Amino acid sequence: MALARLMSGFKPSRRPDPVPNPPSPARGNPPAAVQLSWNIHAACNYDCPYCWFHGHWDDFSGGNVYLPPGEWAGHWDRFNDRCGGAEIYIAGGEPFVYPGFEQIVARLSKRNVVFVITNLAWAPASVIGKLDPAKVAFSASFHHQAAGSADAFAEKVASLRRAGFHAGASIVAYPPFLRQLPDWVDAFMARGIYPVVQPFRGEWRGRAYPAAYSRQGRRLVEWLARGEFVGKYGPLAWRAAGGGRTDTERKTDDFAREYQLAPRVTRGALCNAGRSYGRLQFNGDMIRCSQGGYVGKFFDRDFNMGAGAQACPFRFCECGNEVVYVKGGPLGPG
Ligand code: SF4
Q: What is the per-residue burial (b if ≥16 Cβ within 10 Å, else e) of 312-323?
């Protein structure tokens, strides 16, 4: 079926059973002075073909640093003493296969707000009563080839919400998946979960994406990413899907999405990356952003974030979640 008809003929096919999204922990806690992405290790229990690490795990895993929860707590305490409480987005690889991960998060969330980006291959029941929903939230990435049915996966996200956790979902618009995407989105929306559809960035069959999407493919990805289908769902599903996020979170999502759909040159623009945002790598290096810019070694006793916004040295910002720190972005310099 042509992609265009997938959009024009789209209608919800599941019985709605929306589960409201509890408030984001960013809402119920003092605003964080710093936001960090922590790539805790280059290792995963999946190996998705569209993953940035696919085919390169061995190139990176040698740099992984495995420390016990108590030692991590010492490093983070020193950081918090110096920089205050932070908003920490933990990704990998897969964070939950890092030894002692739940204990690390339990300690970390005492002084910080923690968002875990995970493939949710684990049972939601395993964190209930162990992690604090007032300080910890989840962003579950649906990887069809490993996770199986979208309905089963969406049900796991819904069970995290029922346990009080702010929980969302995302899907990569990998070219071979385009025809299945609307049905997957319906599986989430039926439970009141609005999945973030991310344009695929990378190579498929020798062609570079997102530029290589066909005209219809690009239109479908935009239609899904911008949520142009939501009018097909009732207010209950929409309220459940839209709830729980702060205004800043909404603004950053919108800014990031539009940038990913139409990237523009960032070189020379002032950016807060390195000052109020940083990326902690699995080897302990703190860098400005996913493209580089060394800030310091997190394990050093005198480690600190940069003092001020600096010009972006890169032609394009490669990460939608980071472009929000550039001048003009919702978290950029004034
Ligand atoms: S604009 Fe993007 S690429 Fe440039 S420094 Fe900021 S975060 Fe990095």
A: bebeebebbbbb
- What is the Cα–Cα distance from 329 to 40, expressed in whole angstroms? 26
Q: What is the DSSP letter of 115?
A: E
Q: Find out whether 72 and 108 touch, Cβ atoms under 8 Å.
A: yes
Q: Whose CA is closest to 160, among 205, 198, 193?
A: 193
Which ligand 1 atom lies nearest to the CA of residue 316?
Answer: 3
- Token output for 315: 């032609």
Amino acid letter at 201?
R
Rounded to 5°, angle at Cα 154 from 100 and 231: 140
Structure tokens that stand for 248 in this block? 């800043």
The dihedral built from the CA positions of residue 296, 299, 302 and 305, taken in this order, carries a sign that is positive
Cα-to-chain-centroid distance, residue 265: 23
Tokens of 263: 């990237």
User: Given this model, what pLDDT does residue 234 score?
Assistant: 78
- What are residue 137's DSSP bridge partners? 115
User: What is the share, in percent, of the chain residues with pLDDT greater than 70?
Assistant: 97
Binding pocket residue ranges, ligand 1, CB within 6 Å: 266, 271, 273, 288-289, 291, 312, 314, 317, 322-323, 325-326
Helix (H, G, I), strand (E, B) or coil at 285: strand
**Cβ-contact 124, 158 below 8 angstroms:** no
Are the CB atoms for 248 and 260 separated by under 8 Å?
no
First to last CA, the chain: 48
Q: How far is the centre of ligand 1, averaged over its atoms, from the C-alpha of 36 (Å)?
A: 14
Please list the helix, strand and coil fractions of the chain in percent, rounded to the nearest 5, in that order: 35, 20, 50
Cβ pair 195, 221 in contact under 8 A: no
Distance from the CA of 332 to the center of ligand 1, in angstroms? 10
Identity at 235, one-letter amino acid code: P
Q: What is the pLDDT of residues 13-37, one digit of tens each?
A: 999 899 999 988 988 888 898 999 9
Separation of 88 CA from ligand 1 center, angstroms? 18
Domains, the chain, ordered by start: 2-245 (3.20.20.70)
Distance CA 245, CA 27 (A): 8
